[in-house]
Amino acid sequence: MGTDEQGTAPLYQRIYQHLHDDIEQGVRPPGSKLPSIRGLADELGCSRNTVEAAYRLLTSEGYAASRPGSGYVVQDLALVETSAPERPEILGVPQPRARYDFTYGNLEPGTFPAAAWRALTDDILLGVESVGCDAYNDPLGEDELRREIAWRMTTQRGMDCTPDQVVVQGGTHSSVQNLLTLFRGDADVVAMEEPGYDGVRAAVERSRFAVAPCRIADGYARFIDDLEASGARLVYVTPSSQFPTCQVMPVRLRATLLAWAEEHDAYILEDDYCRDFRYRERALPPLASMDDRGRVVYMGTFSKSLSPALRMNYLVLPPALLERWRSVFGASYSEVPWLNQRVLGRFMHDGWDRHLRRLQVRNRRKYEALTGALRAHLGGAFRIMENGTGLHLLVCARDGRSEDELIEAARAADVAVYGTRRYWVDPDRAPGGCVLVGFSSIAEEDIEPGVRALARAWS
Amino acid sequence: MGTDEQGTAPLYQRIYQHLHDDIEQGVRPPGSKLPSIRGLADELGCSRNTVEAAYRLLTSEGYAASRPGSGYVVQDLALVETSAPERPEILGVPQPRARYDFTYGNLEPGTFPAAAWRALTDDILLGVESVGCDAYNDPLGEDELRREIAWRMTTQRGMDCTPDQVVVQGGTHSSVQNLLTLFRGDADVVAMEEPGYDGVRAAVERSRFAVAPCRIADGYARFIDDLEASGARLVYVTPSSQFPTCQVMPVRLRATLLAWAEEHDAYILEDDYCRDFRYRERALPPLASMDDRGRVVYMGTFSKSLSPALRMNYLVLPPALLERWRSVFGASYSEVPWLNQRVLGRFMHDGWDRHLRRLQVRNRRKYEALTGALRAHLGGAFRIMENGTGLHLLVCARDGRSEDELIEAARAADVAVYGTRRYWVDPDRAPGGCVLVGFSSIAEEDIEPGVRALARAWS
Q: ipTM, 2 decimals?
């Protein structure tokens, strides 16, 4: 740990580092006593646990040893040296990729409700229920969290959903892979939007299913034709905010899609990853709420609204798939840690609504700031695809420049924007010269200067 | 939440419940003010945050509303009642299956180092690095944890292991499924021990690989013949404590197995799930430490030594598979939550060794207590398979009774023991009348009376 980082390190680490340096430099020679835990805690005005943690660390590394009756004594370093590889250090914080990083997916630092999470973790680990850490957990997810999710599906998303139907999962990719194990032998093809989310496409391909791209251009004009031609009996869609275009799936197509599924004994995997963020009008209800034949598998995530690093999402299974799921996964165990599920269940019970509202307000302000700045500074040479949803915008050059040229020019001005060609199965269909400008991670006050730097770089 | 549970509930819940009951019973009528947050906190000697949490809960459920200038005011319940489904309650603690539950796998309540976990969670969430919660995490795992694991592999397990080779995963089942995506098309057969771990067998079958059972009876006499005949190029083994027999794989077979892998361009998946617990002699070094041709994928877990509910394990990949793994999973993200990885990395740095030693001492005492009690009370009518490793023993009736008869007789005496037939692919090979008696979860002081009850039930 470098000296410059010590101001932000936890106190016990700073105590450890200070004593560690003293011992290494011979200020505290072998055989000398370290201050008593109580004395040092009083001197620093901290708890004894803090000092004790520092001393444990020194002890575990051989710098000191606890001697009954005489406290902690500095050890002879010559005896500690071994040929063992160097002990790992504690690492720092990742850096953004540019001064203005318009990345997509990561959230703005500080979004995660760390204080509430700490408090709830404390509550749970202090309570009798903490024994849940000592046992294998429910393969479908913890009851409390499943009930919280089902309650919101029913009251806020118009779905007819019982906690039984909710399965807690460890992220979109792995839940898609798990879901596909139920469908092996059913044509082994998944129809997907073209363009579409490459992460799910990779998960489908890892599961050895073929991907059948269904074009969404021109208001989904060829989507159903492509779907019918694919022979697929499973289609993955993002109706509330199509990724990466942020289009909303038209109501008529929704009805057609449900009829297609009914007719072909097929299932629709509705990834509603971005329902919580819309800036112009209310969201259409999910496909799952229109589905009275049990043809929709609904998928929600906490990655956009809470933390992408928590690795939690959920499926709402239609009754017909519930038994299949149970027979395949019922004898396994959940892939999502018990503690995280309990903390999230408690957080959804208490602090969720307030947290989400605050994030919605912030994202709306950022959406307005970004669309405003892009319109003001980029001018007519670029097309800005605004749909009033999502956490990014697509921006396309009208002058034939490629996405690589745009990205490189931006990067030279210390601005990061991102390519979109990879979202097409057939890159020849990609319009070319379109980049993704995300606002989930960048700070609101950086949006305007970032877009100005971008406009200069591209002018 | 029932009244009898209130003593153990967090304070904010008890405050909430008390006020909730007052409002429900009309003691606090609509329009009346709740005590001020500061006043109630002072009265109870707790922090204002605690009272505020209780008030937020009341507000979110419509029992109270915050009125600027006049604090929190009780709402009219008639206006709150809706046809919405009932709000989920907070749930309690799971119950053991019998007075004496000799289950396997779950750990003894209190094993999890909850205090250290809380403290480290606090440290991390209070520090600047907590922004890790706001971003997608490294698909291979967090550096610090991978370095801690690699350091132990090298210094304690004799393996030549760099942090690069370590991949943090979300449990044995899903890491096996992930690993198999690298081997599709390579015969699609996995050779496995017969008998063997049914959980991995199910994961293999979910991945649509065939299972080729290789018999381990009579000192692995037919193991290599079965393996050669299988055509498999991947074999799953548990050399340090074969599951479920707890046998240690003989040294000669280890060398033969490595030669087989080299000769067939095959890989050995070594699941070293129980290395930390042995009670008679030192463990043989892992196969991976004998492997100078990069033929072993090593797998370790934290489920036996820390928590089965944390869902963390790791693979150590040989260099030849590292690139394949990166090309398949490098564009995804880790399935293990960032926070859990950071806390565990820190815990391995500080408190791990002490924690493990304590658990080793405890499990050794329980092993001795169980083997002693079984020998003393069961007598010659049963064979007790002792191998000095593992967290369970197999006990087999010599009189032809079936495992179901043994389990039912035990259950009638409020003792839970478990069947073993399911560990055989071919149940006709199972010796019959063998049950699993685990000691990872039962308290030490329950072992002797539990075995006495079992002996009476079976006599």
A: 0.78
